[in-house]
């Protein structure tokens, strides 16, 4: 049970992009930041029963400058929105945002003037997690899905975006490795008809 078993010859070949993404996803530090009842589930996730420490992220950072993951746990009031944005701006690049629960993602049942109808009006969101409240298992699942997305990120796009003050969308693997569109002028092929034997 060790690296020796995985690498019997002691040689490992990979790309810089994969190595950097692996280190980023394996050292996500969440900011200490809870807004409403969803935050209780977030705190439970960090406790021993669910043990976020397995992913190297059990210590929620008290300073946004030491954090690179914002878990928006709870509804965002209009009054809190500028504070949330300021914390996001103070976090280290590259950074990610996970919107936890229906309130953070869409305003939920609070369809009124006091609540922001989705935190993506304030900061770019990388992962949405439904539920009211989502269970700790669901939050862990969303974090693992975010890990998978981070592993699939192009290195240069994010660096360029961080330099000019913008943020690049994560490239989903389904898009990145999906089929390319057919060149212009290529006749359309009815695949269903071919498979059914109508040639
Ligand atoms: S989604 Fe449910 S649990 Fe989470 S903040 Fe809204 S009302 Fe509270």
From TrEMBL:
InterPro entries: NADH_UbQ_OxRdtase-like_20kDa, NADH_UQ_OxRdtase_20Kd_su
Signal peptide: none
Domain NADH:ubiquinone oxidoreductase-like 20kDa subunit: 37-146
Membrane topology: Peripheral membrane protein
Single biological process term from Gene Ontology: electron transport coupled proton transport
Single annotated GO MF: iron ion binding
Keywords assigned: 4Fe-4S, Cell membrane, Iron, Iron-sulfur, Membrane, Metal-binding, NAD, Oxidoreductase, Quinone, Translocase, Transport
Keyword Translocase included in the entry's annotation: yes
Any single Gene Ontology cellular-component annotation: respiratory chain complex I
Cited Pfam families: Oxidored_q6
UniProt KW Lipid metabolism keyword: no
Enzyme Commission number(s) from the entry: 7.1.1.-
Positions contributing to [4Fe-4S] cluster binding: 37-38, 103, 132
Cofactor: [4Fe-4S] cluster
Cellular compartment(s): Cell membrane
Record's catalysed reaction(s): a quinone + NADH + 5 H(+)(in) = a quinol + NAD(+) + 4 H(+)(out)
Annotated cofactor note: Binds 1 [4Fe-4S] cluster.
Subunit structure: NDH-1 is composed of 14 different subunits. Subunits NuoB, C, D, E, F, and G constitute the peripheral sector of the complex.
Role played: NDH-1 shuttles electrons from NADH, via FMN and iron-sulfur (Fe-S) centers, to quinones in the respiratory chain. The immediate electron acceptor for the enzyme in this species is believed to be a menaquinone. Couples the redox reaction to proton translocation (for every two electrons transferred, four hydrogen ions are translocated across the cytoplasmic membrane), and thus conserves the redox energy in a proton gradient.
Family statement drawn from the similarity comment of this UniProt entry: Belongs to the complex I 20 kDa subunit family.
Name recorded for this polypeptide: NADH-quinone oxidoreductase subunit B
Organism per entry: Nakamurella multipartita (strain ATCC 700099 / DSM 44233 / CIP 104796 / JCM 9543 / NBRC 105858 / Y-104) (Microsphaera multipartita)
Lineage: Bacteria, Bacillati, Actinomycetota, Actinomycetes, Nakamurellales
Gene name in the database record: nuoB
């Amino acid at each position: 049970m060790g690296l020796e078993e995985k690498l019997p010859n002691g040689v490992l070949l990979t790309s810089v992009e994969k190595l950097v993404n692996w280190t980023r996803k394996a050292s996500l530090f969440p900011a200490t930041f809870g807004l409403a009842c969803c935050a209780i589930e977030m705190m439970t996730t960090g406790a021993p029963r669910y043990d976020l420490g397995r992913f190297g992220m059990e210590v929620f950072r008290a300073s946004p400058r030491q954090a690179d993951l914002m878990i928006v746990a709870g509804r965002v009031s209009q009054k809190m929105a500028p504070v949330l944005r300021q914390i996001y701006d103070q976090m280290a690049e590259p950074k990610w945002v996970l919107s936890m629960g229906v309130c953070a993602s869409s305003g939920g049942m609070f369809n009124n003037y006091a609540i922001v109808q989705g935190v993506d009006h304030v900061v770019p969101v990388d992962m949405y997690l439904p539920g009211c409240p989502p269970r700790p298992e669901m939050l862990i699942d969303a974090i693992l899905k975010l890990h998978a997305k981070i592993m699939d990120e192009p290195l240069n796009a994010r660096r360029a975006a961080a330099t000019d003050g913008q943020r690049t969308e994560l490239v989903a693997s389904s898009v990145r490795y999906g089929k390319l569109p057919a060149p212009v002028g290529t006749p359309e092929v009815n695949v269903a008809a071919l498979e059914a034997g109508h040639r």
